[in-house]
Amino acid sequence: MTAPVEKRTLDSDVTEVQGRYSAGSTLAVPAPALDVPAVVTRQVLRKGETVQSGSVLAEVSGRPVIGLATPFRLYRDLAPGDEGPDVAALQDALRALDLYQGRSDGAYGAGTAGAVKALYSNRGYSVPVDDELVEAVEQAETMLEETLAARPPVVSSTQDDALSDEGQSGAGVSADESMGPDAVDRSAVAAVENSIAEARAELDEARFDALTPFRVAEIVRLPDVAVKVVSAAQVGAELGGGGVTGGESESDDGAASTVEPVGGGDLGTLRVGRPSLVLRVPMASKDGFPAGGEVEVRAITDQSTVVRGVVRQVSEFRQPDAGTPGGLPGYDVTVVFEGTPEFTDGDTLVASGLEAVAPKADGLSVPVVALREDPDGAYVTVVGRGKVAVTVKATGDGYAVVEAEGLSVGDRVVVSGGADTTGAEGGQPVTGSGS
């Protein structure tokens, strides 16, 4: 389809652009994998609250479920001696909470175990233990005590010298006769000392193995250091494959109501990611929305509430979205907010750029949907001549005022279709009636 080039006077399409608000993506908090029924025994979080890394999300069957900000989901239990990238990620998360002071070397040692222990004890919970390893420590302690008790009296230095002198004198007096009943076989003493050293080593090893382990079932990954609570299972809720059942929830007005299942046995839902607004900004209004620039945002239904945001990203020029009636070409501008605005996810918002833009303009005009852009800049495709470079002065009411060499009133520009764009650029007419 084509349209004629006209002469128009337009006010610059300056500030107001509509877009859709996103409160961020949601993250389901799964129930921990326990050997006993998973029942919420303590509710910690409520809808609207912020979860920080290291926070207890809930208590399930008497055990805490703790959120940690890690770059990926921790996928296995960890114990002293384990190594891997998951250990390093855990160490980073614990250091951010001022619980771990060592290097993130990926080795689960005493420092990491101590930090995990502090993670639990600082929040009022008993630390994970392995009963078999604790029992092994007790056995090693008993073995050391018994070995020490069997240790014979140490040969005194005087007796040792006497034994040496008697041996050199050749008097034929035995060591037992020379030193009396306290004398011992020094080889036996050495054997006992070796046994004691082995018992001490076994105890040290048992104590290392019994250091605080890491239980992945009690940890939930947070993709950010702070996220919002969307929903949370209440005390008494039983978490299972059919969703959360039982218990009561508290509505916004404080009234109790039956808990609605949060789905799939999940413990709750968190909102992650920064609130944002995506706008399709026309070509002539791009200067009003530069990266880093401020914008004012308000809901269509509530013009009185104005929130300021910052342009985080400006995309490359985009053509009209396929299948979107009335979709316009332009730039996708992403606006982010410092706090959490009181908008609802999916709301249509109006944004006004605060940067100076081009004033009213007049001159040759083409439909905005006829504008294209490539690495060389903006252009239109003219029937019979192909691509013609243009400079956009202003847009408004669906039209753009442009400057271009050789473009005249009455020329026809391609609006949509474009199957014969190559032919048009080669000088062949583009088939189709005008509009």
From TrEMBL:
What organism does the UniProt record list as the source?
Promicromonospora umidemergens
Region Disordered, as annotated, extends over: 151-182, 240-268, 416-435
Pfam families per record: PG_binding_1 (PF01471)
InterPro entries xrefs: Peptidoglycan-bd-like (IPR002477), PGBD-like_sf (IPR036365), PGBDSf (IPR036366)
Species lineage: Bacteria, Bacillati, Actinomycetota, Actinomycetes, Micrococcales
Where's the Peptidoglycan binding-like domain?
Answer: 84-118
> Sorted alphabetically, which Gene3D superfamilies does this protein's record hold?
2.40.420.20, PGBD-like superfamily/PGBD
Q: What's this protein's name?
A: Peptidoglycan binding-like domain-containing protein
User: So which domain of life are we looking at?
Assistant: Bacteria
